[in-house]
Amino acid sequence: MARIRSAIRESDEPRVVPLRRQYLDIKARFPDTILLFRLGDFYETFEEDAQIAAEVLDIVLTSREMGKGQRVPLAGIPYHAAEGYIARLIAAGHKVAICEQVGEVTRGKGLVERDVTRVVTPGTVDEPAMLDARRNNYIAGIIVEGNRIGLAAADITTGEFIATEIGGQTIAAALMTAGRELLRLQPAEIVRPAGAGGDHLPVPEAAWLPDAATRSESDGWRWRQDRAEEVLQRHFGVGSLGGFGLGDKPLATRAAGGLLHYLLDMQLTGLKQITSLRTYSTDAYMTLDLQTRRNLELLESARGEKKHSLIAVLDLTRTPMGARMLRQWLNQPLLQLDELKLRQRDVRTFHQSALPRTDLRTRLGTVGDIQRMANRAITGTMSPRELIQLRQSLAAIPGLAGPANILEAAPVIPDVSDIESLLRAAVVDEPPAVLGRGQTIRSGFSAELDEHQRRAREAREWIAGLERTERDRTGIRSLKVGYNKVFGYYIEITTAALATAERERGEVLPPDYIPKQSLTNATRYFTPQLKEYETVVLNAEDTLNQLEGDIYRRVVGQIAAAAGRLLAAAEAIAYLDVVATLAEVAVQRNYVEPKLTHDDIIEIEAGRHPTLEAVIPRGEYVPNDACLTDRQRIVILTGPNMAGKSSWLRQVALIVLMAQIGSFVPADRARIGLVDRIFTRIGAQDDIAGGQSTFMVEMVETATILNHATSRSLVVLDEIGRGTSTYDGLAIAQAIIEYIHNAPELRCKTLFATHYHELTRLEAVLPQVHCSRMDVLEEGDRIVFLHRVVPGGADRSYGIHVADLAGIPKAVVSRARALLSELESNGSNARPKAKEPAAQLRFIEQPSPALERLETLDIDNLTPVEAITRLYELKSLLDS
Ligand code: ADP
Ligand code: MG
Q1: In this structure, which residue's CA is closest to atom 25 in ligand 1?
Q2: Are 848 and 878 in contact (CB under 8 A)?
Q3: Could you list which residues have their CB under 5 Å from ion ligand 2?
Q4: How many percent of the chain have pLDDT more than 70?
C-alpha cells in the first residue's frame, strides 16, 4: 500500500518526466509484482524491483536519470532472453508483470503507449521451460467461514480445475484437513480474499498453509456467493452450477469463483483451457499429514532429495502425464475396495503379460506431453516444434490400443487420428523453433501459400539469372547485377566498358534500361521488369510470413477445437502408463499382489522396505513378517539402536500404503485389510528433518494422533517419549500404549518401537499387546545385528555396544562397562528403583491401595457392620 501512495504522490510532481509518470501509473496498478518495463530491446526494472531483480538474477544494478536531479535504481534484462530470467524470478516466489509497448512506435511523436500484457505468478506460469513436466503446477484458492472451508485448485497447464468443501466439528479440525489437502496438491501459489490472512484463526498459518507456496490476495467481493456463481456461470456458459456438483457446496463455489476470477485477471487470455470443474470429497481418499509424508519419505527423502524416496523407486513412467498421475495416486491412497481392485486387476494383467507390457512401454516412449500441448493449443501459444511433438505423440496412439485391450478398467482412448493427419499434412518435418524463421507449413497444404512461394522463388531465380541474360543481351562481359539497401536491385555497367562496347558496336544498351544512379566510373540501371520482380522478392518474406502465420493459427485453432478429445486421450494414456509402470516395478523388484480385504487385519510375510532394499546391496536386505489381527492390535518392538526397528515400522506402513494405491508390494505374501489413515510419529531426537523439533512438538503431534485415529487406522510410533528424561518418557510411552489399547474409539493397529525394554512387560498386562524384538547375535563383548524381527522382548539395552560400534575410544567403552556393572550390582543407591524388579513391575501395573487393602482383608472374621465400614473405606481409597 505504502508503495502505491508514494507512487501517486510522485507522479503528481510536475518535474517528473513523462516516461517515469507512465511507469509509476502502471506500477501502481500492479503493486505486488516485479514490473518488467519494455524499453527498446530491454525489459527494465526500477527502484525496489531493480534491487530485487539484481539480487535474484545476478545482474548489474545501475541507475538512470528520470527527471531533474532524480536518479532511480535500474536493472535491465534483454527481451530475447527474458523467459529464463522470468523463470528465475518466479522460482524465487515473485510475481512478474510484463509491460509491453502496445502503441505504434513513431519517431518524435511523444511517448509510445505501454501496458501490462501478462502477469506471471508461480501458479499461472505456462511456458514449458518454466515448468517441471513430471508434476502438476497447482494454484489454490481458499476461503474460510465459520467452521467450514472452501478449497479450489487449478492447473492451467493441464486444464484441471477442482473444488471441495471441508467441514469439521471445529474450525481447527477443518483447517488441519485443508492443510493436508494443500500438502497433497503442493500448490505453487495460494490465493485468498484480501485481508483473510492474519491471526484471527485459531490455528497459526504455519501449521496448515504450506510455506513454499506464494501467497496472493484478491478483492473480497470476488469471493461473494453471487459474484462467484456469476463468474463461474459466465466462464462455463451454463445457467446453473448443479451439474458441477456445487449445488450444496456454497464455500466450494466461492473458492472456485474467487480463484477463477483471479486467474482471469492474471492470465488475460480468457482461460479457455479450463473447460470443466470437478467437485470432490476428501472422504474418498486417505489423507496423509505432513509428519507421515515426511517419515515415510514418499516424494522426497528426509534429507529433501528425490532419490531414496518411494516415488524414486516406483516412477518408471514413460510419459509426463503418467508421471503426474503416479504422483497423484501416491498422494491419494484409496479407501474404496472396489476402486482399488479395478486398478489392481489391471496391474496384475500387465504383470502377467510381459509382451504387451513391454510393447506398450516402448511405444509410450515416443508420447510427449499431450495434456500440456493441448492446453497450449487452447491458449494459442503452441510453437512449431510442439506441433511436431504432438504429431509424433499422436502417431503412437493406434499402437497403444493392442496392449491396452487386455485391460479391464482402462479408459478408451478417443480417436484423434484426424488431428494427426492434419499435422502430417500441415507441418514440415523439421520446422524452426519460432514461427517465421524458416518454413513451417508444408507445401501442398495451402494452394495460396504455395502460389506465393512459387512466385517468390521464380522472382529470385529470375534475378539470379539476370546477370547472365543481360551480359548476353548487351555483350558486355563485365556487367554486374547487385543489390543495396537504399536503391534495391540494379544493373551496373562501368563507364569504360560501355564506351568500349559503343565504340565497337554502336548502341548497346537495350531500350528498357532506365538509369538509376550514377557513380564516378559506372552507372546503375533498372528495367520495369526488374522493378516488378524486385517488388515480389522484397515483399515476399512479409507476405509469406503473414500468410503462413494465418494458416498456422488456423491449424492450432483446429487442434484447440479437438482439445477435449486430446485431453481425454492424455488421461487414458496416463492411466496405461501408470498401471504398466506399477507392473514393471513389480516384475523388476519382485513384488507380489497383496490380497485386499475389508477385514481388520494386516499380515505380511517376508516384507521388505521398498526404498531401503533398493539402496543396500542386493540380497543383503533381511525380510521380516508383520502381523496385526483382532487379538494382536499393538506390537511393541524393542532392540538396540541401529538394529532395524524404524526400518521395520516404516516398511509395514509403506506396504499398506502401496497396497492402497493399487500397487504390488515388496513381500512374499501380504493380506491387507484397508486402513482409513496411516499416522506416523517419530520421537523428537529421531526427527532429523524437522531440525528444531522439541519434545513439545512431539507431544502435540502424538496428541493429534490420539484425537483423530480410529480403530481402522494404522498408527506407527517410533521412540515416542524419547525426548525427555527416562522416567518421564517411559511413563508417557506406557500411558499412550494403555490408552490406545483401552479407549474403545481407538484400539487402532499400532506399531511401537522403543528402546525402553521395560515396556515389554505390558504384554503380560494388556491382552492385545504383542512383543517383538530385533534379533542380535552376541559374540563375547560384541554384537551383530541380524535385522530380524523375532517374538519376545529385549531384556536389556545395548547402548554400550552401540558406542563401541560407533568407534568411541576403547578406554571409554571399557570404563562404561565397569560403571554399568557397578550400577547393576549396588543399584539401589546409584539408580534408585530403576533396576529393582518389584518396583519396576509396580510402576507398570499401577497397583491401587484399595486393592492392597482388599488383599489383607479377612472376610471370614468380619461382622456385617465391620464389613460395611470396610466397604466405605475401600470406596474412599478408590476415590482419592
Ligand atoms: P533402529 O531404528 O533400530 O535404530 P534403523 O531401522 O534405523 O534402526 O536401521 C538402521 C540401519 O540398519 C538401516 O539404515 C539399514 O542400513 C539397516 N537395516 C535395517 N533393517 C534392515 C534389514 N531388514 N535388512 C538389512 N539391513 C537393515
Ligand atoms: Mg530408529
Answers
A1: 621
A2: yes
A3: 645-646
A4: 91
Q: In whole angstroms, what is the distance from residue 166 CA to residue 175 CA?
A: 8
Burial class of residue 470 (count of CB atoms within 10 Å of its CB; 0-12, 13-18, 19+): buried
**Ligand nearest to C-alpha 719:** 2
Question: What mean pLDDT do residues 728-744 have?
Answer: 87
Q: Could you tell me if 647 and 789 are in contact, meaning their C-beta atoms sit under 8 angstroms apart?
A: no
Distance of CA 158 to the CA centre of its chain: 13
Ligand 2 mean position to 620 CA, how many Å?
Answer: 19
- How far is the centre of ligand 1, averaged over its atoms, from the C-alpha of 784 (Å)? 12
Kindly give the distance from the C-alpha atom of residue 646 to the centroid of ligand 2, in angstroms, as a whole number.
Answer: 4
Q: What is the mean pLDDT of residues 813-842?
A: 54
Range from 515-524, 542-551, 774-783 carrying the lowest mean pLDDT: 774-783
Best of 301, 636, 642, 756 to mutate for ligand 1, by most ligand atoms within 8 A of CB? 642
**What's the rounded Cα separation, in Å, for the pair 712 and 747?**
8
Cβ atoms of 787 and 643 within 8 Å: the answer is yes
pLDDT at residue 835 above 50?
A: no
Strands (E), 444-521: 480-484, 488-494, 514-518
Rounded Cα gap, residues 205 and 861, in angstroms: 68
Q: Which of 608, 612, 802 to mutate to test the pocket of ligand 1 (most atoms within 8 A of CB)?
A: 612
Measured in Å, residue 644 CA sits from the centre of ligand 2 at 7
- Nearest ligand, CA of residue 620? 1
The side-by-side arrangement of strands in the sheet containing 214-218 is 214-218, 189-193, 139-145, 148-155, 160-167, 278-279
With beta carbons less than 8 A apart as the criterion, state whether 509 and 537 touch.
no
Secondary structure letter of residue 760 according to DSSP? G
Distance (angstroms) between ligand 1 centre and the Cα of 641 equals: 9
The b-or-e profile of 495-516 (16+ CB within 10 A means b, else e) is eebbeebeeeeeebbeeebeeb
pLDDT of 493 reads: 94
* Nearest CA owner, ligand 1 atom 17: 644
Average pLDDT over residues 656-681: 96
Q: Residue 860 has which C-alpha cell?
A: 471370614
The answer to whether 862 and 842 have CB atoms below 8 angstroms apart is no
Share of the chain above pLDDT 90, in %: 47
Give the 3-state DSSP-derived string for 357-405, with helices as H, strands as E and coil as C. HHHHHHHHCCCCCHHHHHHHHHCCCCCHHHHHHHHHHHHCHHHHHHHHH
Continuous H helices in 709-836: 726-742, 762-765, 799-805, 810-825, 827-830
Task: Return the minimum-mean-pLDDT range out of 121-135, 214-228, 611-625.
Answer: 121-135
Q: Name 754's bridge partners.
A: 638
CB-based pocket (< 6 A), ligand 1: 612, 616, 620-622, 624, 639, 641-647, 787
CA–CA separation, 258 vs 223, rounded Å? 5
Which atom from ligand 1 is nearest to the alpha carbon of 788? 23
**Interacting residues of 55 by C-beta distance below 8 A, sequence separation 6+:** none
> What distance in angstroms lies between residue 785's CA and the mean position of ligand 2's atoms?
14
Beta bridge partners of 785: 776
pLDDT digits (tens, 9 = 90+) for 683-729: 755 444 444 446 777 777 788 788 888 889 999 999 887 766 667 78
Residue 106 is predicted with a pLDDT of 59
Number of the ligand closest to the Cα of 774: 1
Identify the residue whose C-alpha is closest to ligand 1 atom 6.
644
Identity of residue 356: P
pLDDT tens by residue, 76-120? 999 888 888 998 898 888 999 999 888 766 555 577 888 888 888
| Eight-class DSSP state of 728 | H
- Model pLDDT, residue 322: 96
CB-based burial of residue 81 (10 Å sphere; 0-12 exposed, 13-18 middle, 19+ buried)?
A: exposed
SS3 580: helix
- Nearest-atom number in ligand 1 for the CA of 645 is 3
